[in-house]
Design goal:
CATH architecture of the largest domain: 3-Layer(aba) Sandwich
Strand order of the largest sheet: 7-15-11-12-14-9-8
Number of strands: 27
Distance between the termini: 87 Å
Helix content: 25-40%
Number of helices: 17
CATH class of the largest domain: Alpha Beta
Length: 631
């Protein structure tokens, strides 16, 4: 830039750094393979450390380091006190650095099996994975596990970093054997691009420059490869896609739809479709803070205005009308379970995909995947860090594309409805064909008409409590009272239903969820028929009682908690079940070796150890009479 004006030189320099590309990558591998050391070495050798950081590193190396008087580069990344004390990585540590050619965000992922969910979090936004292997140990179980997760989350570029080559005498045959084994694994997992590099992270060999210690290696250094690798996806661009993140309406004269272009490009005048509604229109303007654009492409944040006043909400997708994504409400998916409590099919969760949140259930676990061997195993539930192929059912359709085509429209998380904690992360594989073939059949005689013909307000009275609490006794007495009043009722009793509809179900947590799901659906049909249905089930889990409640309109579901202390219920023990459970003859018995989750806000709370059945039935009738619609 000799001879250039200084201001122009600075401007050119700033423009160069503003426009250079960004590569997101992760490091993963077994414990003590040197992931944190490698990142620390990259930061140090690219001269991206300030003097005070370097001084702190030297000080911490003497206090916590494992390299004697030498710098312990791992301490640059291992930020948690527990990590420094144990010498391991627990959380995902993100670091930013850059060179003259590229900017980088690197995630140092934990190697322990119990932190698989942390590793998946780091991989979810990465374009490339650096898989470290200790040259002395070769390919380990953790290598296979992490490579599987890398493949599952759509990373197709891997650097196989064979570390600690100095400890095997820089032996090429050791390197070649490891590379051959990993390429076979990569082919099985569908990882298409593998660059193998022998290195020593501690000594800096082949990290930022090729090392004379291994003259037989003629490939790029690690940094050289990271600076030049092309990680653009091989799949053809599916067309324009804009997931709507925000409806922008600063005043009554402007209504735009903000989001980041996920695929394709768009120009004013292009025909687009809004999904899942299917409404078609045209793009009027592409608005940005710097002014309107004639064209926008992938990765650009924009605000679109449309030619017509169509209904567009947060979470909708604006797409090219000629090649829109699919819309469905049932899917096959891969799921990594991240919750401390197990995943139970049929239990309700929130599914968040992009900016859209819908109700969801795992309707079936097709099989669990042993991430160490990729073997397919039968499973009825998922525990922490387990992966499975599942079927998902949503309560409303969404626009989607398979994850291998689009991360933005194919990756999702599951959220616990009670705690709002993220409990699962997954990838959509394909829509289940039957989902597109099932539609609601409109009926001329609706629930209101049936209720009028019966002269009553249909409801579901859901009795819950321990075995022996008195649920069936109170429900039966209430049923007789209502029948005498001319009301049309029906009782769904737990024991009776298990003789027919649910006779194939046991008492495991998984079967209890399905037991309640089926009964709730039957109760919903009975309420739709205009009946007052009395459901008497232990229903020990709050999540399943919430599932049942969500099926009904406001005011139709009345939760009746028949509250009896365990000691009192055991004393009654009319059926002798508690005695058998205490003797170990009955497994998964509520209150003994299976939990009962007390209702938090029941409409009716009956203290069954202090009140007789007649008074409890009176209390329920009084409550119903006091509602706005009456009994």
């Amino acid at each position: 830039m000799a001879g250039m004006d200084p201001a122009a030189t600075v401007a050119a320099y700033l423009h160069q750094h503003e426009t250079k590309g960004l590569l997101r990558f992760i490091t993963c591998g077994s414990v003590d393979d040197g992931k944190s050391t490698l990142i620390g070495r990259l930061l140090h050798d690219t001269k991206r450390l300030f003097d005070d950081q370097l001084a702190a590193l030297e000080r911490d190396s003497r206090r916590h380091g494992t390299q004697g008087q030498d710098i312990d580069f791992a301490l640059l990344v291992d930020g948690l006190a527990a990590e420094r004390e144990q010498g391991i990585t627990i959380d995902v540590a993100y670091r930013f650095f850059d060179t003259e050619r590229r900017k980088f965000i690197v995630a140092d992922c934990p190697g322990h099996e119990q932190y698989t969910r942390n590793m998946a979090t780091g991989a979810s936004t990465a374009d490339l994975a650096v898989v470290l292997v200790d040259a002395r140990k070769g390919l380990l179980t953790q290598t296979r596990r992490h490579s599987y997760i890398v493949s599952l989350l759509g990373i197709r570029h891997v650097v196989l970093a064979v570390n600690k080559m100095d400890l095997v005498g820089h032996d090429q045959s050791v390197f070649d054997d490891i590379v051959a084994g990993y390429r076979e694994l990569a082919a099985q997992l569908g990882i298409g691009h593998v660059q193998a590099i022998p290195l020593s992270a501690l000594r800096g060999d082949n990290v930022t420059a090729n090392s004379p210690a291994m003259p037989w290696y003629t490939g790029p250094s690690l940094l050289g490869h990271l600076e030049t690798v092309d990680v653009r996806r091989d799949a053809a661009d599916p067309g324009f896609r804009l997931p709507v993140q925000w409806v922008c309406r600063p005043d009554q004269d402007f209504r735009g739809f903000a989001g980041t272009v996920a695929a394709g490009d768009v120009e004013p005048g292009d025909a687009v479709v809004v999904l899942p509604s299917g409404r078609r229109t045209q793009v009027a303007r592409i608005v940005t803070p710097a002014g309107d654009l004639p064209r926008a492409g992938r990765g650009q944040p924009v605000v679109l205005t449309l030619a017509d006043e169509v209904d567009v909400s947060r979470g909708d997708v604006i797409a090219a009308a000629a090649a829109p994504p699919q819309v469905a409400d049932q899917f096959a998916a891969h799921l990594l379970w991240m919750g401390e409590q197990p995943l139970l099919p049929g239990r309700p969760y929130w599914l968040k995909i992009g900016a859209r949140t819908v109700g969801a259930q795992v309707t079936e676990i097709k099989h669990k995947v042993d991430v160490n061997t990729q073997a397919e195993l039968a499973a009825k539930h998922l525990d922490l860090n387990e992966v499975a192929v599942c079927n998902l059912g949503l309560d409303q359709p969404i626009a989607f594309e398979p994850y291998e085509t689009s991360r933005a429209l194919g990756g999702f998380i599951l959220i616990d409805r009670q705690t709002n904690a993220t409990v699962g992360a997954g990838t959509l594989d394909f829509a289940l064909r039957r989902a597109a073939n099932i539609h609601w059949q409109p009926l001329d005689v609706d629930k209101a008409a049936r209720a009028r013909s019966l002269g009553q307000v249909p409801r579901c009275l859901w009795f819950t409590g321990l075995s022996g609490a008195g649920k069936s006794t109170v429900a039966n007495l209430l049923d007789k009272r209502l029948h005498a009043m001319g009301r049309h009722t029906y009782i769904l009793d737990g024991d009776n239903v298990r003789h027919g509809l649910n006779k194939d179900l046991g008492f495991t947590a998984e079967d209890r969820v399905e037991n309640i799901r089926r009964v709730a659906e039957v109760a919903k049909l009975m309420v739709d028929a205009g009946l007052i249905v009395l459901v008497s089930f232990i229903s020990p889990f709050r999540a399943e009682r919430r599932l049942a409640r969500d099926l009904f309109a406001d005011g139709e579901f009345v939760e009746v908690f028949v509250d009896t202390p365990l000691a009192v219920a055991e004393q009654r023990d009319v059926k002798g079940l508690y005695a058998k459970a205490r003797a170990g003859q009955i497994k998964n018995f509520t209150g003994i070796d299976s939990p009962y989750e007390v209702p938090e806000h029941p409409e009716i709370h009956l203290l069954a150890d202090r009140t007789d059945a007649e008074a409890m039935a009176d209390a329920i009738i009084a409550h119903l009479n006091a509602t706005p619609t009456g009994l």
